[in-house]
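Deliverable D5.2: sample structural annotation.
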Amino acid sequence: MVPMAPSRPATILIIDDDPGIVTALVALLQRQGYMVMTAGNGALAWEHLRTQRYAVILCDLLMPEIDGQAFYTLLQQHYPCLASRVIFLTGDMLGDTTTTFLHACGQPWLFKPCRSEEVVHAIAQMLCATEA
């Protein structure tokens, strides 16, 4: 029997401008065994994509510079495979613009603040979908 090579932990990018949310998500995801990178907005996240690919991207919608919608549009244009790996986070109680965008893009989303179990479950589902 040939031993299997150990699998590398999935790398997750968190894009959010709220330091409290970022700190909590990093701690949660590292405890789950994931490698985690962070960016405070879409512009900084875009820079990360030059050197790293991510299994899952957790992306806030409302941020300075490049917001979640604009970041997602850039992904669709330049990295369509990564666009399918986005899970949106929103504190917006679904205003018309947010609702329209989330339904149109078809990506999963979570309301902030969200429970740890919701985040872990959403990531697990995304990882299973991208492996299939």
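Annotation notes: Helices lie at 19-31, 42-48, 68-78, 80-83, 96-105, 116-131. Residues 28 and 116 are 7 Å apart (CA to CA).
The annotation will be released with the project's public dataset once the embargo ends.
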